[in-house]
Amino acid sequence: MTGNSPSEKRLEQLREQAWADGVVAGRGVDVAGGPIPRKPGYYGQPVVKPPVWSWEIPIYFFIGGLSGMSAVIASAAVLFHHVDLVRTAMWLAAIGVILSSILLIMDLGRPILFINMLRVFKHQSAMSMGVWILSSFGACAVPGLIAVELHAHQVFGGTLDQLLRVAADILIFGSAFFGTLLATYTGVLIGATAIPAWFLHRVLLPIHFGTAGLGSAAGLLELFGHRIAPLNAIGFFAAAVESALLVWLTIDKHGAADRAIHEHGSGWLIRIGEILNGPLALILRFFGLVPFAAISFLIGALVSRFGWIAVGKVSGSDPEAVFAAERL
Amino acid sequence: MIGEGIQSTNQRKHSYVHDHVEVGFFTDPTVCIGCKACEVACKEWNHVPDDGFVWSGNSYDNTGHLGASTWRHVMFLEQDRQKGNQIVGSHSLANGDGEDPFRWVFLSDVCKHCEEAGCLEACPTGAIVRTEVGTVLVQNDVCNGCGYCVVSCPFGVIDRRPEPLPDAGGAFKCTFCYDRQKSGLVPACAKVCPTESIVFGRLDDLRARGAERVQQLQQSGYNDAQLYDPTETSVRGIHAFFLILGEPEAYGLPAKPQVPTIYLKSAWTSAFATAIASIIATLLAFAFFS
Q1: Which residue among A284, B119, B122, B189 is the one 20 to 30 A from A88 at the CA level?
Q2: Which of A20-29, A63-72, A247-256, B56-65 has the lowest mean pLDDT?
Q3: Do residues A180 and A286 share a domain?
Q4: Which residue segment(s) compose the domain that A151 sits in?
Q5: Cβ-based neighbour number of residue B167 at 10 Å
Q6: A37 lies in some domain
Q7: Residue B224 to residues A39, A67, B266: CA-CA distances in angstroms?
Q8: Under an 8 A CB cutoff, do A124 and B264 touch?
């Protein structure tokens, strides 16, 4: 081998590059394989573990929020005598809670053991609280819907029907109570974790998830033909709050600690979602384009849920984010 | 004390489980030789499956990180720093100042078995429990794999085991060889450690031993030797603590780990406020626009 052969020249090249830059970034060359680690932490390995949750969870957040807040609208509709609206809203609540349960069980590593969630009640675990909230919501919403429908179709007459009406009202108010918690606890669920981009925004998250649930419920009810002024007002309210949250999230930066939101592509999912269910929904509603505003809000609410889970995966894999959050 | 060999606590039978004595691991990288016997012993005793083999390119560490199928992990740190009174060579390439400090540090990482354990608090099935000896144990037959412990561990230890490995779907981490301890045996990793870099014993004894070892090292010129045992944060101390050289970040250890339950109060306050505001807003919308 002479010093002029191509492979020897390549080695010379690499040596010079290493000498000049301290780094050789070629194909098949791992910088971390060099003698001194240059990646943050331990060879850039994650310090905390990113979430293992897949697509079921953001969809569950979306459907759970929508059905929970539907029950709130249903109870207001009971109080203000919008009989048809009560029925549609309770259908949404009941179908939503069934879909939510299916999604939650699907996401488990061992779906067959889902029942073990009901062994314990732990106030310090948002997951445990969530399971009980979802179960209680289901225990109110499904019989609530049955009672509403039996009463609406006058299946029984006389006293039994009167009792049914009272039971329906109680169950609807119960659904509303657990429904608001179902829509908001999901923010606590991901806010009280070791993932920097999540726990740094633990106050914003429940507001966002709850409001997104409320606006989605109103929007979907409007799309089902309930074009009434109260739902439009709720739509305005939710879109206005979401617009404010978009501004808050844009201002509330924590440097490297939550850079997954502000610098990474997954943060765009959140922002696109927030634009759709914030300013865009507000403008569309302002110009009276109610169905479009509703669709925009619903898509935004869904996309931003996916965004938050995606951001958690990025943030949890980023050792610098964890270290930076400690220095805040 | 160091180098007691077969006379040490690592080889003795004990009755800590029966006597409800708090136990711990003290892991000392200054005597670790990076043999990975602890990793092998752990996998063999606990039937932890093979989770693939990947050349990482990170020194001699092809294990990577702790996880569902890695309960002991020997870290290989290569640092341009002096190790104790190490005599450094004069063939410097990088500095050109005639000194070329270089040290190789091995540290066997493991579940910390926190005093306030994020995974235990988060577990919604009660699968994760505190044992009589103060360690944190996942009961595999109860765990339904919800994955909430994974994001609740401030050290990134516990993980859900993916398909197609045996027992997939459940969350796994170091058991502190609870099964062995119940029979008066020492955890497998400590039992096999040839240099007693991993010491098993009573937690109070180990803390004293750790403090003494740090003093001893500092006297011998290891100025950056310190204990890693976050007792000042919400984690309130760990049962498996470490001696480290330099900063915890280099070992992928958070300097101020926090148990995520401290975030609950503000998050729930926000949730309740949102819940109430949503109800009021809905009622107002119906009251004024009907």
Answers
A1: A284
A2: A20-29
A3: no
A4: 50-192
A5: 17
A6: no
A7: 21, 56, 37
A8: yes
Domain spanning B5-258, CATH architecture: 2-Layer Sandwich (3.30)
- Domain ranges within chain B, ordered by starting residue: 5-258, 260-290
| Residue A17 pLDDT | 82
Instruction: Please give the Cα distance from A233 to A215 (Å, whole number).
Output: 10
Question: What's the CA gap between B239 and B111, in Å, rounded?
Answer: 9
Q: pTM, whole model, 2 decimals? A: 0.91
Q: What letter represents residue A197's amino acid?
A: A
For A158-204, the pLDDT digits (tens) are 899 999 999 999 999 999 999 999 999 999 999 999 999 999 999 99
| CA pair distance A240, A312, nearest whole angstrom | 26
A85 contact partners, CB below 8 Å, separation of at least 6: A73, A74, A77, A221, A226, A228
- Predicted-complex ipTM score: 0.92
Looking at the fold, whether A122 and A248 belong to one and the same domain comes out as no
A42 touches chain B (CB under 8 A): yes
Q: How far is A80 from chain B (nearest CA, A)?
A: 7
Residue B290 touches partner A, C-beta closer than 8 Å: yes
In tens, the pLDDT along A46-62 reads 999 999 999 999 999 99
CB contact under 8 A, A210 and B118: no
